Amino acid sequence: MIYIATTTINKPTKALKKFANNDNCKLIVALDKKSKPFKLKNSIVLSTEYQNKKWPKLSRLVGWNCIQRRNFAILEAYDRGAEIIALIDDDNIPYKNWFKGILLDKRISSKLISINKKVFDPVGFTNHKNLWHRGYPLELINGRKYKKIGTKMIKPDIQANFWDGDPDVDAITRFVFAPECKFFKKYFPFHSKKISPFNSQNTLLNRNVIKDYFLFPHVGRMDDIWAAYYVTSKKYVVVYGKPTVYQKRNIHNYLTDFKNETVGYNNNLKLIEDLYKNPENIYNYLPINSAKAFDEWRKIISRYKK
After folding, report:
1. In whole angstroms, what is the distance from residue 236 CA to residue 234 CA?
2. Distance, CA of 9 to CA of 251 (rounded, Å)
3. How far is residue 231's CA from residue 216's CA, in Å, rounded to a whole number?
4. Mind listing the pLDDT tens digit for each residue in 203-242?
5. Strand partners, 153
6. What is the Cα–Cα distance from 296 to 55, expressed in whole angstroms?
7. Of 6, 20, 60, 270, whose CB neighbour count within 10 A is largest?
8. pLDDT tens for residues 21-42?
9. Number of neighbouring beta carbons within 10 Å of residue 66
């Protein structure tokens, strides 16, 4: 059984209905204070009252009306004994192959890719070479060169699957390119030994990762990106998989997205350099309540069954 964790402020979307109706998974939805009335069969819905009662300190530190409420769906899945937790957005419409390519807990053959930069950008390796992943340092975009070192056997801790349609790129990329993507399957699966970004949509995590994987609040749209940079700096193995969803992106204000990404534009490269020295340097970049929330997250996980 795969547990799927998400949050939403919308009524049940097409994507959420598809996941809820699949017998291979159990969908957990953490509601927010501005969530619309939400009823969905075959799913676990965490009310705001439930979250406040079960995790009062963490709930206060994370705050409300933010996508980081997804953390509580992850905790619920972990508490229920989930071995694999998948993170999705409510606009990730699953393909039929979503459940047919789970690579976690297996030894698999994967392309090992190197790049001539300090950070590996997974999007630039694909057929959309003019694009880059949200959160990739802007200073490193020009001159990216990739090399296939070979095919290696790996046992991934994290499976970051891609998304057709509107990809997870930053606001600058959307302003310039307005991309609509179809990623070619021949590139996948692949991995890198360098620190690299992945997001919290259409990504699967092994249970052993959760103690270190936290969607940091109060850092704008870097919540999942900094989580990715942190766990990859701790040498968890990430495999990038072929698209298994079509993202029909919810309405966004690109200028607002840009403003919420500036913390990354200003800090990502220096952050990554410091993470190479010591992963715990992440604390040097976190606002105080975000750091306290991460500490509380670790305390909660330590109390649950390993």
Report:
1. 6
2. 13
3. 13
4. 999 999 999 999 999 999 999 999 999 999 999 999 999 9
5. 109
6. 9
7. 6
8. 999 999 999 999 999 899 999 9
9. 16
Q: What b/e readout covers 6-43, taking b as 16+ CB neighbours within 10 angstroms?
A: bbbbeebbebbbbbbebeebbbbbbbbeebeebebeeb
Q: Quickly count: other Cβ atoms within 10 Å of residue 58's Cβ.
A: 23
- Give every CB contact of residue 206 below 8 A, 6+ residues apart in sequence: 83, 84, 104, 105, 156, 157, 158
| Sole residue written with tokens 């159990």 | 26
Q: How many residues does the chain have?
A: 306
User: How many Å apart are CA 32 and CA 150, to the nearest integer?
Assistant: 45
In the chain, where the domains are located: 90-301
The contacts of residue 246 (CB under 8 Å, 6+ apart) are 92, 93, 95, 163, 164, 165
- One-character DSSP codes across 129-150: TT---TT--GGGSTT--EEEEE
Cβ proximity of 144 and 121 under 8 Å: yes
Q: Give the position of tokens 């676990």.
A: 44
Q: Tens digits of per-residue pLDDT, 250-274?
A: 888 999 999 999 999 999 999 999 9
Write phi, then psi, for 228 (nearest 5 degrees): -65, -45
